Amino acid sequence: MKVAYLTGIRRVEVGEAPAPRLGGPDEVLLKIHSVGVCGSDIHYYTQGRIGSQVVKFPFTVGHECAGTVVETGTNVSSLRAGQRVAIDPLVACGQCDQCRAGRRHTCRNQKFLGIPGQMTGALCEFLSLPAECCYRIPDSMSLAQAVMVEPFSIGLHAVRLAELAPGSRIGILGVGPIGLCVLIAARATLGCRVYATDLVDYRLETARRCGAQWTGNPTSQDIVRAIAELETLGLDCVFECAGDQAAFDQAVELIKPGGALSIVSIPEAARISFSMEHLRRKELRIQNVRRQNQCVTPAIEMIASGAADVDPLVTHQFPIARSAEAFELVAAREGGVVKALISVFPEP
Fold first, then answer.
1. Does domain 2-148+310-343 have CATH number 3.90.180.10?
2. For residue 348, what pLDDT is reported?
3. What is the pLDDT of residue 346?
4. Residue 268 has pLDDT above 90, yes or no
5. Starting from the edge strand earliest in sequence, which strands make up the sheet with 193-197, in order?
6. What distance in Å separates the CA atoms of residue 24 and residue 322, rounded to the nearest whole number?
């Protein structure tokens, strides 16, 4: 089967590998149709690591994916061959204290698609996964939309964790794919008024299409002053989705006393800092967001029903033979790219 490998820093090559067999009685064998290029994949592409997770080349990344069931294990009754599925890339142990507490996303023994030392990624033609990772999608949903279930479930999880009231005033700093998913979730579930910022103007255009009432680029204006003039009491919550120290500094200035900072990004820097004056005097809460938890099914329902329109986020599609081009485009943030998909087996 065809497989796309990271073979070095900023190097992607497509090769051949033996097709996997069904992994066990609780697994399903999948034909992978499309894989989204995620920001975390780009960390591995440009840096070769995320924190302590270091790539040993060659390695296959990719976790935002959708496919069709080819074969099922003997214990699997929830799925059958031919069904199309969205995929949760997390494999939890189900036994640790976190899993027992309903926090599978912080499982102490978890494995995740496309993470060094855990599981090889989805940029390949066939993949065997536990059936519990596979969620059947309705006939009305495209496989491209099914790929977007994974990032949208993160945005939905972030909004749920924030425990906001309907109509809250929020900021989203960084409107790449995850920031846009937070925006879509906040608008769809709570009707939030959204102030969105980014360093890339075409992403701000997409944010407006997705429902942001105000957008601004910190390179061309003082976004803190501009938002403060419109929201004199401050914002209820700011979702930091850029992973940049400047964005963290802006966030704590924008939040009202008693408000919250939600950290959704994965900063490249090992450490970030905050103004303790702002944190202490405003008594701000900080909430980190770790992937998603129990949001895949509602994400599918919202996308399938049209309540969450993720179609504007998918701007580019590449065949697997052009995987290197897809990665470089996303890394460079050029060509109007928001979310690039790599088609392994194109949708009929």
1. yes
2. 66
3. 77
4. no
5. 214-216, 193-197, 169-173, 235-240, 255-263, 285-288
6. 33
